[in-house]
Amino acid sequence: METRTLEWDTPMYRLAVAQLDQTAKLMGLQENLWHRLRTPQRAHVVSFPFRRDSYNVVETVFGYRVQHLTTMGPTKGGIRYALDVDLGETTALAMWMSWKCAIMNLPFGGAKGGLRIDPKSFSPAELQRITRRYTSEIIDVIGPDRDIPAPDLGTDEQIMAWIMDTYSQFKGHAVPGVVTGKPIEIGGSLGRKEATGRGVVICMVAACRHLGIPVEGARVVVQGFGNVGAVSALLAHAAGARVVAVSDVQSGIHDPRGIDLPALDRWVAEHRTVEGFPGAEPVSNADLLTLPCDVLIPAAIQGQITGANAPQLKCRLMVEGANGPTDLDADRILAQRGIMVVPDILANAGGVTVSYFEWVQSLQHFFWSEDEVNARLTQLMTKAFADVLATAQQ
Ligand code: NAD
Question: Are 43 and 64 in contact (CB under 8 A)?
Answer without folding.
Answer: yes
